[in-house]
Model the fold of this input.
Amino acid sequence: MAASPKIRRDFFNRSVHRVAPELIGATLLVDGVGGVIVEVEAYHHTDPAAHSYTGRTERNAVMFGPPGAAYVYRSYGIHWCLNFVCEAEGSASAVLIRALEPTEGLAPMRRRRGLSDERALCSGPGKLCQALGVSIKHNGLVLDRAPFELRARQHKPEIVIGPRIGISKAVDHPWRYGMKGSKFLSKPFKT
DNA sequence: TATGAGATCAACT
DNA sequence: GTTGATCTCATAC
Done:
């Protein structure tokens, strides 16, 4: 199989709404463990649902930094969520990685998750971070250097679009992107 | 299949 | 003091 080109950090130097759909089908690895991105959501600083909406704080400082970095935060006190910073320094936009199709390092993922069901390993932002071992240690790290590895997709997949999940503000913005027909989505898309 | 509650904590008001 | 960009398990249908 031909090696896919690595995604460099300048890939993220564009609008989240352009970056997000292009991430579908790309491969994300952390320490060699990961898979194909099948679901993401876009967050923009003008968006009431975004952490950056009310301005820079200690938690979201990475979002205000240069694109191509990972923004990791704790959700509901227990889970971690992984975002990729986009656009430009200070624009405070990011793409939330919501689901992966596991392809590399199945054994460590199953061990970390305590599950054997492949479909449940990475089908949600909290699950995905647990399976890949992502935590606050990764906050602020750039995505084109170890332990991260991002590889571009070979072919453009069919993309489905819908409203975002688990938020209470700006719920109608269709800023959730998924790979059509994937069995590894956190929730099915209404088509 | 669907709905609901509990876990658990840092940031925010 | 309240609220989540969530997940899992239990109970109901």
Notes: Residues 41, 43, 49-51, 73, 75-79, 81, 83, 96, 98, 124-127, 130, 164-168, 186 of chain A lie near DNA strand C (CB under 10 Å from a C1'). Residues 16-23 of chain A form the longest helix (8 residues). Chain A has four helices and eight strands. Residues 9-179 of chain A form a domain with the 3-methyladenine DNA Glycosylase; Chain A fold (CATH 3.10.300.10).
